[in-house]
Amino acid sequence: MDFRLTEEQQALRAGARELLAGRFGRERLRAAVEAKDLDRGLWAELAGAGMFSMRLAEPEGGAGLGLPEAVLVFEEAGRALLPGPLVATHLAAGLLDEAVVAVVDTTRRPLLAEHLADAQAVLVLDGKRVRRADPAAFDPVPEPCLDPLTPLYRVRGGPHTMESLAVLDTDVRTLRRQGALLTAALQLGIALRTLESAVAHAREREQFGRPIGSFQAVKHLCADMLGRAEVARVAVYAASVTGDAVDTATAKLLADEAAVRNARDCLQVHGGTGFTWEADVHLFLKRAWVHATQYADAAANEETLAAALRR
Amino acid sequence: MDLSRTPAEEAFRAELRRWLAHVLPQLPPAPDPGDWPGRRAYDCAWQRMLHDAGYAGIHWPKEVGGRGAGPAEHLIHLEETEKAGAPYVGANFVGLLHAGPTIAAEGTAEQRRRWLPPILRGEQVWCQGFSEPQAGSDLASLRTRAVREGDTYVVTGSKLWTSHAEVADWCELLVRTDPEAPGHRGITWLAMPMDAPGVTVRPLRTLAGSTEFAQVFLDEVRVPVANRLGAENDGWRVTMVTLSFERGTAFAGEVVACRRTLGEVAAQARSNGAWDDPVVRRRLGRLAAEFSALWSLIAWNVSHAGDGSPGLGGSVFKLRYSHARQELFDAAAEVLGRGSLSAAHRWTHERLSSLSYTIAAGTSQIQRNIVAERLLGLPKGP
Ligand SMILES: Cc1cc2nc3c(=O)[nH]c(=O)nc-3n(C[C@H](O)[C@H](O)[C@H](O)COP(=O)(O)OP(=O)(O)OC[C@H]3O[C@@H](n4cnc5c(N)ncnc54)[C@H](O)[C@@H]3O)c2cc1C
């Protein structure tokens, strides 16, 4: 047992961070807020860097890496607040050939789906199977999303149309579990980034003639943010190693909480600035809220964990 | 990121399991919680059994009598002994988890030879005399004076909240040797025999009804200079070594025990109907996540222990764990309903004693200060 990251894993994470800092820094983030459409050039670059295919075997065009490596890359994507159907496209690698793939989860109501207009294909998940569909088959109607970087659609198409779709040869539970874990990794990135942002502001901003970070009320908010982020980190990493369903529920539950609550506390530390459109804090919080509803929400994760307790 | 066990580690686990299955049925019944001499005898007998089987001081270096095992074996040991329902370190807590590791890290060869083997054999019990009536969170303001007279320190003052003082042979004592030096600079670490003339122990009753700790009065107690660990006035640094151990793996076994209790609480909820309430189920599910992650955090801290002090990572752990433990026994009380009013129930006693977790070994507020200032680099307060 050695839970530390290997040198290769550290290098992978550092490489992902560097790539994203170069290609999706603050200016690009703010431009994306206005642009709405997916940046296909960036998407192609991410694909070229192996973001989606990394877990496929080398002969199939992948890098033969595992979930622990994927989780490290997605942590960085979360930290950069990279937009787009990252998890869905990653899950579709090896199943579908399209470059941009969205997910429709038919077990959830209301039936809403992210990124449909940008996608060329859709993974349709129900309780039993994974199917393939064209985005147009759903007759998507745009629904304004609280996150300006996540285009959202109301989806039509009843169960009878679903039946006619091509069934993909993959296990829906595995796909959901991996989707939940990679989303948890995005949340971990958000939790860490909002912590750093809060701490940087607390060191810099002065009131009453001293940095606000010297006040315990602010300090203790930051300390609790670190606690949440570190607990989420070990939970996400552990689940990536075991691949276990209950470990994944642990990871998603704690990472969702860390992302949402850290983003809120980050907003609080920023004071009035934190409530403005110009500050980035709200973008992190809104994305964290979106992720928290994906794959498995708090209620579902807690019920999964409860059901696994001793009978 | 490797959480797998090597065949050698699995063999260690199997051998330990066999041994536990063999010896645990032979243990006498556990003594009454209020019977301190009985508890001491019981805890020391258990420590002796561990020692004779080669399981004492699993992760202590071989040259001080430990097994010299790595972090993986250490965690397996904590996991398996808890799972098997083996006795807890109990009265040997300070010796095995605070004073011992400090002596191992800072003591001379002679001091290690003198004090460590009796701790591992369960022959000598230690207590920790740090806190004072006027020095709690602000430990560095401690006032107990030690005046040097030749090769002896003459110690006068009083220590408070000293756990297990009634049955201890030794006290790891912090004293002020330089009254002029500010705060932490004039402090020295001494090993004081508890039977020395001038030591008076007055047990204090806790809110759980037991006498876990005491006030210790020191009236011109003579402690040989040879009992000093580290240099004179260097006790603060020596102490920090201890506190970092305290916040590291000291609670690992308890996390395993909490996970077991959580399973029992769920079983109880299933049998008394509380389980039908989704609020109860979700509360227990959330606790399962928290304790699972705390176990991962221990594995993470232990894996990184060689890279630096476990003390700081331990602060995050202690903060979350102490809260989670209180939440666990509050949830157990919700499941028991009015049954939680019975003081005879084990969970009621645990609920009461869990209240100390956010206070002892550095309060939660102090842990947050440490995390914010030392890990996050926020400026010191006014
Ligand atoms: C069960 C138990 C066993 C113990 N065993 C031992 C032992 O064996 N040996 C030993 O030496 N000690 C022992 N202690 C003592 C323990 O370490 C102290 O109680 C603890 O450090 C707090 O000190 P205090 O009780 O004086 O509280 P105080 O320091 O007076 O704190 C009171 C309140 O003020 C808050 N506070 C204080 N300073 C600050 C600050 N700077 N910022 C924010 N908040 C602050 C605290 O968080 C707390 O809420 C034990 C305590 C308990 C409960």
Give the helices and strands, then pairings.
The complex is a heterodimer of chains A (311) and B (382).
Chain A: H1 7-23, H2 26-35, H3 40-48, H4 67-80, H5 86-92, E1 101-105, E2 112-114, E3 121-125, E4 130-133, E5 141-143, E6 152-154, H6 159-163, E7 166-167, H7 172-204, E8 206-207, E9 210-211, H8 216-242, H9 245-269, H10 281-293, H11 298-307
Parallel strand pairs in A: 1-3
Antiparallel strand pairs in A: 2-6, 3-4, 4-7, 5-6, 8-9
Chain B: H1 7-23, H2 36-52, H3 71-83, H4 93-106, H5 109-120, E1 126-129, E2 145-149, E3 152-163, E4 170-176, E5 187-193, E6 199-204, E7 213-224, E8 228-229, H6 235-246, H7 252-272, H8 278-303, H9 310-336, H10 346-354, H11 364-375
Parallel strand pairs in B: 1-4
Antiparallel strand pairs in B: 2-3, 3-7, 4-5, 5-8, 6-7
Helix pairs in contact in B: 1-3, 3-7, 4-5, 4-6, 6-9, 7-8, 7-9, 8-9, 9-10, 9-11
The complex binds flavin-adenine dinucleotide.
Could you explain how this protein is built, in words?
The complex is a heterodimer of chains A (311) and B (382). With 311 residues, chain A is an alpha+beta fold. Chain A folds into three domains: 7-84; 101-167, no CATH class; 172-307, Up-down Bundle (Butyryl-CoA Dehydrogenase, subunit A, domain 3). Chain A has helices spanning 7-23, 26-35, 40-48, 67-80, 86-92, 159-163, 172-204, 216-242, 245-269, 281-293, 298-307, and strands at residues 101-105, 112-114, 121-125, 130-133, 141-143, 152-154, 166-167, 206-207, 210-211. In chain A, strands 1-3-4-7 form a four-stranded mixed beta sheet, covered by helices on one side. A three-stranded antiparallel beta sheet of chain A has the order 2-6-5, with no helix packed on it. Chain B has 382 residues and is α+β, with helices and mostly antiparallel strands. Chain B has helices spanning 7-23, 36-52, 71-83, 93-106, 109-120, 235-246, 252-272, 278-303, 310-336, 346-354, 364-375, and strands at residues 126-129, 145-149, 152-163, 170-176, 187-193, 199-204, 213-224, 228-229. The longest helix of chain B has 27 residues, at 310-336. The two termini of chain B are 41 Å apart. Chain B has three domains: 7-88, Acyl-CoA dehydrogenase/oxidase, N-terminal domain (Butyryl-Coa Dehydrogenase, subunit A, domain 1, Orthogonal Bundle); 127-232, Beta Barrel (Butyryl-CoA Dehydrogenase, subunit A, domain 2), CATH 2.40.110.10; 251-375, Butyryl-CoA Dehydrogenase, subunit A, domain 3, CATH 1.20.140.10. Residues 127-131, 136-137, 161-163, 212-213, 356, 359-363, 365-366, 369 of chain B line the site of flavin-adenine dinucleotide.
